[in-house]
Amino acid sequence: IETLVSLVAYAVALAPDMARKQRYAGFLGVLTGEENDYFERSFAALGVPEKQWRAPRSGTLSHPVGDGFRALMHEPVRADDYAGVLAVLLPVEWVYLTWASEQRDATPARAYLKEWIDLHVDPGFAEFVGWMRAEMDALGAAADAATADRLVATFTRAVELEVRFFDAAYD
């Protein structure tokens, strides 16, 4: 989540106007507040030692998919690429919105699983993902062919990593 928070903070920095900066800043508040608190409670419920989740890259929580996401999230940051940041953020969050929406009425036995669903069916989250979709559509429509191809490739890699992330639960 630290890498994601950094990417969203970079979206705040790169966004071309105050209205867009405010959108990302609001999402940043959710990530560093409710979602971070959720992870801490969930790790406690699962008995994951704090030392392990505070340094996942050096512990047993490290995984090639996480490494792939970190690398992908750093690419648009290194290039000062607002559209590239959005091409990473949108598919990742859209997948969670779609998945959670399908699970909205589920009643998993473990409370932290229901809370994860609830975080991602929140109307504010759904509205933010919709806004990012419209933002990406506008950027894509205005992009030249090379930029559009790059954004499609980035978006596709993010989706592929999300699929691998879900599959990794079975590793």
Question: What secondary-structure arrangement, pairings included, does this model have?
Answer:
Blueprint: H1 2-14, H2 18-46, H3 50-54, H4 64-78, H5 82-103, H6 111-121, H7 123-142, H8 145-168
- Outline the low-pLDDT stretches: none
In round numbers, the mean pLDDT is 90
Q: State the major sheet.
A: none
- CA radius of gyration is 16 Å
Structural class: mainly alpha
- The proportion of residues forming helix, as a percent range, comes to over 70%
* Number of H/I helices: 8
| Amino- and carboxy-terminal Cα gap | 21 Å
The outline comes out as globular
Order of helices and strands, N to C? Answer: HHHHHHHH
Overall strand count: 0
Strand % is under 5%
In short:
This protein has 171 residues and is mainly α.
Polypeptide structure, described:
The protein is mainly alpha-helical and 171 residues long. The chain has 8 helices and no strands. The longest helix is centred in the first third of the chain and has 29 residues, at 18-46. The two termini are 21 Å apart.
Keywords:
171 residues, mainly alpha, 8 helices
